[in-house]
Structure formats: structure tokens, C-alpha cells
Design goal:
Elements: H1 3-10, H2 20-36, H3 38-45, H4 47-59, H5 71-101, H6 104-108, H7 115-143, H8 153-175, H9 181-198, H10 210-217, H11 220-233, H12 239-262
Helix pairs in contact: 2-7, 4-5, 4-7, 5-7, 5-8, 5-9, 5-11, 7-8, 7-12, 8-11, 8-12, 11-12
């Protein structure tokens, strides 16, 4: 056995450290791909506003009690957080799965690019896309659909962006458990619907059985909805709102860490 062979056999490969430069290059590559994918861009920027418009047509004429917010003001505000979460989860999980099935991911991981570089680059790219999505949707909601919000619109956009980044992180994590794009789509109801049912949108959380309230407390979408409700009822940011935003952001970072730990180069 030669000296080179001894060195190759006995020296384990050290984990590569995170590189901001490589994460930035990954984000640039993903954004370039998004820019040329017109259908995905339309899904990111147009679909949430269109769905919100459908809700406006359904609820704009529903009568409400004096002094109470209209049904659209209450539900539409919450959907500004729910819709970005759902759309970004779907887009990100399928995008990462395509990287694996096409062999792109395997080729990238043979370069100096590490798993954290890859996932943080993806998170940054889709986070920028989520910011554009939130700005467009919130602006359309306030100007076209006349959504009434007590608090600053900037806080609504911030919560929508954080919620969309959560969708990105959970989408990256879910992609590790799917082998095909169809399986990635199948995972969406498993991840999204329980959170949607228990977040307080369909029924006040105080009316749910105790164990369901506890389950809802553990789900990040519940805290996103509560943060938006705080903005809808208060003219300034509250401590509870910031606590809820912190929980959503922390869950997103945890999900990114788990995604890096479970990332596979290819589907088996």
C-alpha cells in the first residue's frame, strides 16, 4: 500500500465548514432558475393574491355585527400568513426533489459546497422570493380588496415573510422523505392541514378540547395566526406578537438544521 493510499484510507474526510460565499452562489443560482421559470414565478406572485380575491368575493358582502371586523378582514388577514406558507412549502419541496432526481445535488455535493451551504442558499433565495410574494399580496389586499388592518402593514409583511420561510424550511425537510414529485405533493396535506385545522381559523381555539389546544400550541402556524391577529387588533407591535414571531422563526431554523442532517444526495 502506498503512502497516498494510507492517507486516503486512514484519514476521514472532515466536515466542510459553512461558507457565506458558497451559500450566496447557491442563492444566486436558484434565483436565476426561478427567473426563467415563469410558471413558478406566477405561482409565487399571482396565486396568493388571486386566492385572496376569491375569498373577498365570497365574504365581502357577508353582514357582521356592529363594531366587529368583517369576515373578510378577519379571515383575509390570517390568510396572508397561511397562503405564503402553503405555496412556499410546495414549491421548495418539489424544487429540492428535482435537484436530487436529476443528479444535480450529487454533483454539487462533490464540490466544496457543503450541506449547510446548499440549504442556507436555498433558504436565502426562496426567502427573497417570499419577501416579494408577501409585498405583492399584502399590497393587493389593502389597495384592491380594501383589507382593514389596525396595525402597521410592515408588520403584516414581516409575519408573512417569516411564515413563508417556515414553509421553505419545512419543504426542504419534507423533500428528504419523498422519492417522486407526487410523493412530495402527498406530504403537503400531512404537514399543512393539521396546522390549518388547529390554528384557530376554522373554530376559536378556546372552544377546542384541551388536548387539541395543546397540540395546536406546538404547531408553528398557530403562532403565525396569533401574531397576525395581534396586528389586526392592535395599532402597535405587542410583546405577544414578537414572541409568536420568534417561535415561528425558531421553528424555521430548527427545520433547516434537520433538513441539513437528513439531506440525501439522490433518491434510492
Amino acid at each position: 500500500m502506498t503512502t497516498l493510499e494510507l492517507h486516503t484510507t486512514d484519514s476521514p474526510r472532515r466536515p466542510r465548514a459553512w461558507s457565506p460565499r458558497l451559500s450566496g452562489a447557491t442563492a444566486s443560482r436558484v434565483l436565476s432558475q426561478l427567473r426563467h421559470d415563469h410558471r413558478t414565478v406566477a405561482m409565487l406572485l399571482v396565486l396568493p393574491s388571486a386566492l385572496l380575491g376569491l375569498l373577498y368575493l365570497i365574504w365581502s358582502e357577508v353582514p357582521t355585527a356592529p363594531g366587529q371586523p368583517s369576515t373578510f378582514d378577519r379571515v383575509g388577514l390570517v390568510m396572508l400568513g397561511v397562503l405564503p406558507f402553503v405555496v412556499m412549502f410546495l414549491v421548495t419541496s418539489i424544487a429540492m426533489l428535482r435537484e436530487r432526481t436529476s443528479g444535480t445535488l450529487e454533483r454539487l455535493l462533490t464540490t466544496p459546497l457543503s450541506r449547510p451551504d446548499l440549504l442556507l442558499g436555498y433558504g436565502a433565495a426562496f426567502g427573497l422570493a417570499a419577501t416579494g410574494q408577501a409585498l405583492v399580496t399584502a399590497t393587493v389586499a389593502v389597495t384592491v380588496y380594501d383589507l382593514d388592518v389596525a396595525g402597521p402593514l410592515g408588520l403584516v409583511v414581516l409575519i408573512a415573510v417569516v411564515d413563508a420561510v417556515l414553509g421553505v424550511a419545512l419543504g426542504l425537510l419534507a423533500s428528504a422523505f419523498a422519492r417522486t414529485e407526487f410523493q412530495a405533493v402527498q406530504l403537503m396535506p400531512v404537514v399543512v392541514l393539521p396546522q390549518f385545522f388547529l390554528c384557530g381559523l376554522l373554530a376559536p381555539r378556546g372552544q377546542l378540547p384541551g388536548w387539541l389546544q395543546t397540540a395546536g400550541d406546538l404547531l408553528p402556524l398557530t403562532h403565525a395566526v396569533e401574531a397576525l391577529a395581534e396586528v389586526g387588533s392592535s395599532t402597535a407591535a405587542t410583546g405577544r406578537m414578537w414572541a409568536d414571531v420568534g417561535i415561528v422563526a425558531g421553528t424555521a431554523m430548527l427545520s433547516l438544521g434537520l433538513a441539513a442532517a437528513t439531506l440525501r444526495r439522490r433518491t434510492s
